[in-house]
Amino acid sequence: MGSSVGHAAAPPPPPPPVGLAVALPPKVEEKSEKKVDYLNLPCPVPFEENQREALMSLKPELFEGLRFDFTKGLNQKFSLSHSVFMGSMEVPSPSSGTIKVPTAHYEFGANFLDPKLMLIGRVLTDGRLNARVKYDLTDNLTLKITAQITNEPHFSQGMFNFDYKGKDFRAQYQMGNNAFYGANYIQSVTPHLSLGSEVFWLGHQRKSGIGFAARYNTDKMVATAQVASAGIVALSYVQKVSEKVSLASDFMYNHMTRDVTSSFGYDYILRQCRLRGKLDSNGCVAAFLEERLNMGVNFILSAEIDHRKKDYKFGFGVTVGE
Amino acid sequence: MASRASSKGKGKAARGSNEQSTARSVKKWSTWAMKKAKVITHYGFIPLIIIIGMNSEPKPQLSQLLSPV
Fold first, then answer.
1. I need a surface site. Which of A10, A171, A249, A297 has the fewest CB within 10 A?
2. pTM (2 decimals)?
3. Does position A109 have pLDDT exceeding 90, yes or no?
C-alpha cells in the first residue's frame, strides 16, 4: 500500500454498527442516475415479434379433440416428429362465419437445427407441406423462407424474408407470392423504447399499406402499440408480477368492421406445469394447461367456452419428447 | 393478360413487338420454372432434410430413423 508523497490520507473506516442498525438490513446505496448512452442502445425485438409476450400469454394453441405428438431426436441437431390429431377444426365458411369440420390427420415432420441453418418440414396426410428455412448468410443478415405447398393449384403460399440486424436497429425486406412486397424497420430510441414502421404492397390487388409500432419495455412490464393503415389499432400490456406469474391484456380496434375486442389473461409458469387462461370481451373464456408428468412427457388440456355462440371446445393430448 | 399484351403490340409499330415477345417468353419461362420448383420442393424438401440430418455429426443409424424407440 505504498502511497506517494502528497497523497491525502484515506478517510477513516466507518464505526461498527451499533444497536438497531445491526437488526435492520444495511441501507442499499441509491443507484446513481446512469447517463443514457444514446450510441449504445440495445438491439430491439424484431418487428413481427413486437407483441410476442402478449401473444404467448393470450393466444395459446387451443384445440378440440385428441392430440398426440412424438418427437424423436436422432442426434443433437436432427429430429423427427410424428403427430396425430383427431377432432374438429374451425373452417371459415362463406355462409355463417366458421363451421366445425371433423378432421383426423397424421403429420410427419423433420427438423434440422444448426446454429447457422435451420430446416423444418411438416407433411400431412392430405399432401400439404409446411416448410421453414432459416439461414444466416452473415453474422447480421438472415434469410428466412416460409412456404405452404398444397396439391390444389393456386393455393400454395411462400414468403422470402431478408433480415438485417444492426447495432440498435433491425430492417427486414419481404417478398411473397401474389406479388407481395413488404419492408419494415425498427429502431431503439431509448434503452426502453423502440419505434418501428412497415410498408407493404400487394401486387395483384393493387393495395398498399403502412403501419407503425411502438414498444416500451422494462424488466417488469412491456407495453406495445400498433397502428396500421388498414384501420387496425392494437394495444397490449404485459406485467410480470413475479417470477412465476404474468398478467397480460390486449385491445384491438378494427375501423373497417367497427369491431372492438379486448381480452385479459394470465400466465402461470410453475415448476411442473404452465397454465394460461384468458377472458375475452366477446364472451370467450379459455384455459390451456401443460403439465409435465415425467421427463419429456407433457400432458395438455385445452378448454374454450364461447358464451355468446354457445360453443364449447375441449381438447386433451400428450406430447412426448422435447 | 397475354392476349391484351399481344393486341397492344399489334396496335403499335413493329419495333415494339420484339420487346413484347421477349417479355412474354421470359414470363412463360419463369412461370414454368416456378411450377417445376414447386413440384421439386413438394416432393424433395423432407427427403432433403433427412439426407442433411443423416449426414451430420454424430451420424445416426438407419435403424434409428425407422424405429419408434
1. A10
2. 0.78
3. yes
